[in-house]
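#structure-requests
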Amino acid sequence: MTSEGPSPNGRPNAGSPAGAPPEVSGNGVALKLVARPVDQELKASFLDYAMSVIVSRALPDVRDGLKPVHRRVLYGMDQLGVRSDRPRRKSALIVGEVMGKYHPHGDLAIYDTIVRMAQDFSLRYKLVDGQGNWGSVDGDGAAAMRYTEARLASIAEELLADLDKETVDFTPNYDATLLEPTVLPAKFPNLLVNGAEGIAVGMATKIPPHNLGEVIDATVHLIEHPEANLGDLLKHVKGPDFPTGGILMGRAGLVEAYSNGRGRLVVRGRAQTEKISKDREAIIVTELPYQVNKANLLVSIAELVKDKRVEGIYDLRDESDRDGMRVVIELKKDADADVVLNQLYAHTQLQASFGVLSIALVKQKPVQLGLKPMLEEFVEHRVVVITRRTKYELRKAEERAHILEGLLIALDNIDEVVSIIRKSRSVEDAQRNLIARFALSEPQAKAILDMRLAKLASLEIEQVKTEHAELLEKIAYYKKLLSARSEILGVLKTELVELKGKYASPRKTEIIETEAEEIAHEALITEHDVVVTITNAGYIKRLPLASYRAQGRGGKGIIGTEVREEDALIDVFTTSTHNYLMFFTTKGRCFWLKAYEIPEASRYSRGKAIVNLLPRLEQGERVTAAIPVKEFTDDRFVFFATKRGTVKRTVLSEFGNVRAAGIRAINLDEGDEVLAVALTNGREDIVLAKASGKAVRFKEDEVRAMGRTATGVIGVDLEQGTRGASLENDEVVALVHLEANEGDLLTIKANGRGKRTPAPDYPVKHRGTMGIITIDIEENVDGKTIQSPVVGLVHVRSGEEVMVSTEKGVMIRVPVDEIPVKGRAAQGNWIIRPEDGDRVVTIARVANQVVATSPTPTTPPS
């Protein structure tokens, strides 16, 4: 058997017989043949390849945030002279320069790198200032390199600054004919500012871009407080700032990503509803999540409409132009914009996730980094750069000062110097004579001999003295900088602040506090009083309390919300933007939202659907109560009533552990559901009304306080077979809590009859009883006794209004004073007359409009 020559990787063929003479390569070097198992050879070769990809291609350096190809492009453009203050040059020229000198891996890879650094939708701060067609968010590619022109952006020059002052190490290029930097000096944390993305072998990195001003503020804070924790840094770095804007939903993923370098972010496009005609609305999208292709998004929406997975869209068009993005999603006349938008978030990339994986090279090794380690590595890099720069400048200053000292000696003894030079036979002889006479060094003597006669002018002599004095000051300053790390850090901080003033820009990506547990960032939200309104159709909004002007007693008030003819306000309350709103559902769960998470709208807007603010609701689950809470104290209680007569009282403090996914507020029996929830003070009276026409009133404290997961106790006995209660399926239909024994209890039946009965007419009994009659549900119709169950009971006062709704959507708004006051056993009068086949389903008290009253009566205008 004979050897077949070297293997492709340069190693000799392992198939040569033992004891055979060594093979000789083409350049005459003897190659030793080594026999190795195939698995070991594959393992070693693959690891070599993997590390080569990781270090030399796919992962950025933590110090300058650049991969080798990006670094070579910027350095090549700098060496070519296409800087921000010079005309742009053809991209083909730049690509050829970089490929021929530094990056011999093909022109396409280099041009793609230039293209991405020139796109304002790819990088938060462009590093290349391009002219021509550089592509679009629709996925359009850039024009060929022969058509585009480019130069360095001004901020890119900050990455290259001081490169000529021995601040970083250089290494030979691929053919050892030139030197290239191993890293750039990088005056700002580019890894965080512009982010990075790459796929290596067995690992990947995906770092989002950030706002330059915020990152610099965090870096300065870290310099001043090296012991700062993540929470301190997050007061400055609010979160990623994508070049395409968008809305970042919540901060839970941010804290995780910034603490250990891995997390998941949810980003939504910016969309708003506009009235485009008298009876038609449209959703206008002006910003998209980062890296989302607009054209593909429109195609996916069209397919969803075609497949009827999203209904309510009438037309779809792209009206984007050079002034900005504008995607118009025109809705059908009867479509609900909030519902359609919610569907688009669920089924399209209008809401997209961004998986953060912060892996970068630290001393040529891949490391997963959090926010603080990234900033620490940058600070250490800049400390090294500034130290090396200072040493270089100190050396140059000392060399120049040394020369000037020789010149000053010569100028002070100019006649003798001239005489020595004239008497010397050669330049070398004159140099030796000057050194011997004035104890000069060779550079000093050479500088004297090279000195022009113009230096003998008195003004020139003064300039030399001034320059020497200034150099001595610089030398002292440089030595002071090198004497202590704190001095270097002071220079670093000053440079960062100057960079911020020069390049910082407002944040593009908005961050919404949707995660209830992220209360540490409330300082970002201004605390002020707001008015929250809820309508019968389930719409909610908030308005600043200041929007309701003060009026004197007897004023007419102002409109607090615009409701449709078939809708009405059922709840209005004031709270603070930092207070919680607790939402309880029919399935016994509790969700929280901060008041500032409720969309702010004008007085004439109906607001947002509550279900769109609580995306974790299950199929068929409805919100049954919304309660504002400032503090989760022990002196307030949450009182529950279910349709099957169960009641429960839980201390409000039990709900203080806010969770984004909601919690179990009451344990329900199978088939039961929460009817109503009220916030009580522990001393109120509870009234439960049943469909069978009876109600029970009892003291709240008869129900002992229980834990959240408890089922509760019997509040009222559901009866069957007795007169006035012979319904096959009796159930609780209303919960009323009375702080004072005043006003009326208004009862209404399914057939539309109702009445008012004074609250004192309902004596206080005990819970668990069948209750006393509140209205007679039996009526004689055409000689037949027909039962009409109770569907609602509300506590009302004179001057108020109620809204009555039927099963077929018919609504009527009735002043309370028009409903007769009658005894408990009366049948009631007609409040509404439903059509055949229809029935009343709900009654709600219409909330009064909110009017802030002035301390003293005001005089009405004439």
